Amino acid sequence: MRENEENGLPAGMAPEGKIEVPAGGLVLPDSEKGGIVNAWSLSLVGAVVVLTVLCTVWPDPYLEILRFLPGGLVVTFEVTILSIVCAIPLGLITGLGRLSHNRVINLIASTYVEVIRGIPLLVQIFYIYYALAKFLQVSGLTSAVIAISFCYGAYMGEVFRAGIMAVPKGQTEASRSLGFNKVQTMLFVVLPQALRTIIPPVGNECIAMLKDTSLVSVMAMPDLMQFGRSFAAKSYLYFETYTVIALIYLIITLLLSKAVSILESRLNYYDKRK
Amino acid sequence: MTNANSAEPIIRIEHVWKFFGELPALQDVSLHVYQGQRVVIIGPSGSGKSTLLRSINRLEEINSGLISVDGIDVNDPKNDINKIRQNLGMVFQQFNLFPHKTVLQNLTMAPCRLRGMPRKEAEELALRLLNKVGISDKAHAYPAMLSGGQQQRVAIARALAMQPELMLFDEPTSALDPEMVGEVLDVMVNLARDGMTMICVTHEMGFARTVADVVVFMDKGQILEVGSPEDIYEHPQHPRLQQFLKQVL
Ligand SMILES: Nc1ncnc2c1ncn2[C@@H]1O[C@H](COP(=O)(O)OP(=O)(O)OP(=O)(O)O)[C@@H](O)[C@H]1O
Ligand SMILES: [Mg+2]
Asked: I need a surface site. Which of A229, A272, B30, B219 has the fewest CB within 10 A?
């Protein structure tokens, strides 16, 4: 293995700081534009007000629908959290694999990303569900988590790759010149700096993931979406039910995107000049 | 060579060739550096000065020839390059401090993790070194809060924290505002006075004249002239050196 090659970064470096979000994440609230009136607060207040008004003015059916949903919400969170826990390590490994100078590892990681990115998530979920069902006895939850993590692992791999590449090469050289080996350099020097650029888009991916868990209702997973579908099917109140479902998803993702942007500003602790 | 006070050189560079693609960045370069020697490398841009320096701690891998540190071949895969590097401090033009660590952590990280030094001892060492480079009051600041000159002094202290046998400087003052060059050079002069063996790529002639035992002139990947500061600056022999000095003076 040639020592100096590890420093040669592939072309197409992400401009320092910002990474493009590869898959449909929310627009993060822009802390610089502050103020009370911005798109984020308007959406949140709007959603909460509409939901409250609907539930107070027409408790039947809106409050009924709202009461019916918590069970589904729990499953939605369960699928999301398990998928995040699996997708992040998979993303890190994929990102490192894509940066590896070992041809075989690089090829495997790149092929994985290429294939996953070329197949719609809904198709993947169907495919993995039925493929797993054909060969293994796995629960709906397991196959949902596998499908979503597998897909998002590829997206996150790109985020990790870009974040690692955005750390200046001089950092690696300084670390290696002190006598740290490659692994130590990655762990102590590169990754901690990369995390700063990685966390906001990874947070966005997690939010997108939460939204995409609604697709697992096709596998009869009792998630928020599936609860809504069954309520609507029973009551024929399609419009009312999906209104509530949409508002709930909106409120959750708005709150989470705020959390991501707060986290992001915390991560900038070390370049604030005094 | 002047000041060759011991028989075995610390650094032995023999007939080194290095190519970047077709381009020969080093052409049959040979140089010996002895214990306690202060070597300054000068030469026009692109002459291979950085490449030579970076080959010594294998940040660049050479194509042929031999480079050894304390008799250990740095390019032999059987030798642990990380151990060799612990003994070779390096200071970069762009400082390359770790921005996510405080000044103190920048200094203690390598001794703690690589030498297994207890934290307390490493911090004492770090504070001593920061004192030496004149910024002990910034121990808990992050690098982004420091001026360029301060950052470079921290970078020197960070390299010294591994208690290396030899220091490599690659244009340590070139990225600095002119008013900060002096403070960094002072630190380097003091280091030289303490007897540190150093190889410096620098165009600071004042520094070279004060501390250098040997000045090496490189051009187009070759060492064209080696001599004392007087030899090089007062009585340059090679026409390309004469021309180079005319341009920089
Ligand atoms: N990583 C690299 N890939 C390709 N060519 C390189 C690389 N690094 C250096 N070179 C080339 O090798 C030659 C020597 O470069 P080097 O950086 O050693 O010169 P230098 O004397 O340090 O110049 P400067 O004073 O500008 O720092 C130059 O022609 C440079 O363009
Ligand atoms: Mg150079």
From this structure: A272
Rounded to whole angstroms, the Cα distance separating B194 from B179 reads 25
Chain B: which residues have CB within 8 Å of chain A? 57-61, 81-83, 85-86, 88-90, 92, 94, 96-100, 109-110, 113-114, 141-145, 155, 158-159, 162
Q: Is B247 in the pocket of ligand 1 (CB under 6 A)?
A: no
Of the listed ranges A136-140, A212-216, A244-248, the least confidently predicted one is A136-140
The length of chain B is: 249
For atom 31 of ligand 1, which residue has the closest CA?
B46
- Domain boundaries along the sequence of chain A: 39-266
Best residue among B49, B54, B173 to mutate for probing ligand 1's pocket (most ligand atoms within 8 Å of CB) is B49
pLDDT in tens, A89-140: 999 999 999 999 999 999 999 999 999 989 988 888 888 878 877 888 778 8
pTM of the model: 0.83
* pLDDT confidence tier of residue A272, bands split at 50, 70 and 90: low
The interface predicted TM-score of the complex, written ipTM, equals 0.93
Q: Which residue in this structure is represented by tokens 């187009």?
A: B220
For the segment(s) A39-266, the CATH number from 2.30.30.220, 3.10.20.600, 1.10.3720.10, 3.40.50.300 is: 1.10.3720.10
Give the C-alpha separation, B206 to B215, whole Å.
12
- Residue A33: the pLDDT is 53
B236-245 burial, b if ≥16 CB within 10 A, otherwise e?
Answer: beeebbeebb
